[in-house]
Design brief:
Number of domains: 1
Structural class: alpha/beta
Strand order of the largest sheet: 3-2-1-4-5
Number of strands: 5
Distance between the termini: 27 Å
Largest sheet: 5 strands, parallel
Order of helices and strands: EHEHHEHEHHE
Number of helices: 6
Oligomer: single chain
CATH class: Alpha Beta
CATH topology: Rossmann fold
Shape: globular
Radius of gyration: 19 Å
Strand content: 15-25%
Helix content: 40-55%
C-alpha cells in the first residue's frame, strides 16, 4: 500500500452533539493523515413527508420547508467549519436531500472515500423505523465498502502513558 492510509474522509453531520464529536475526531485524523474531509449534511426528506402526513405541515409548504432547512444547515455548517480546529484541513462541504443512509452510502462510493467517521446515533431518537431497520450508522456500516468509525457521545480520548521511572520492555531477537 503506497501513500497515506486515508486520503478522503467522509463525515456525515446532522448537527447533533454526537455528530459534532465525530467531526472533531475526523479533523484530528485528517491532520494526522493529511487527508481531505468531505463534510456532508443530508436534509431528511422522509421526516418532512412524515410531518406532512401527520398534518403538522402542509404539502404545499414543502418547498418553503426545504428552503428553510437548507438555510439552517448552511448556517450550522458554517459555524462548525469556521472553528480553529479546521485550520489547515482540506475540506469540501456537501448538502443533499433524501434518506441520510442512502445519501451517505452514495457519496462514499462515488467519491471513493477511504473512511467514514460518524456519530453512533443522531439527533432523531425513538423513531419506529429505527426499531425495524436499524440506525443510520448501522446501515452505513453494513453497506459501504470502506471502514466506518462510529463515535459515541460523550467521547473522551484517554491516553495511557507509562509511569515515570519505568522503561519500555523490548524483545530481544
Amino acid at each position: 500500500m503506497n501513500g497515506p492510509l486515508f486520503k478522503k474522509i467522509l463525515v456525515p453531520v446532522d448537527f447533533s452533539p454526537c455528530s459534532r464529536q465525530a467531526f472533531f475526531i475526523a479533523l484530528k485524523l485528517a491532520k494526522l493523515f493529511d487527508a481531505q474531509i468531505l463534510f456532508l449534511h443530508v436534509i431528511d426528506t422522509k421526516a418532512l413527508e412524515g410531518l406532512n402526513a401527520l398534518g403538522l405541515a402542509s404539502p404545499s409548504e414543502e418547498k418553503i420547508q426545504k428552503k428553510r432547512l437548507r438555510h439552517q444547515a448552511r448556517l450550522l455548517a458554517r459555524g462548525m467549519l469556521l472553528t480553529k480546529e479546521t485550520k489547515g484541513v482540506k475540506m469540501t462541504r456537501h448538502l443533499s436531500e433524501g434518506k441520510p443512509f442512502s445519501e451517505i452510502t452514495r457519496m462514499a462510493r462515488t467519491e471513493k472515500v477511504d473512511l467514514v467517521v460518524m456519530g453512533s446515533y443522531g439527533g432523531q431518537t425513538g423513531d419506529v423505523t429505527r426499531i425495524f431497520f436499524g440506525s443510520t450508522a448501522e446501515q452505513v456500516v453494513r453497506t459501504v465498502n470502506c471502514p466506518v468509525l462510529c463515535v459515541p457521545f460523550p467521547y473522551q480520548a484517554t491516553i495511557i502513558e507509562p509511569k515515570k521511572g519505568t522503561k519500555k520492555k523490548s524483545k530481544k531477537s
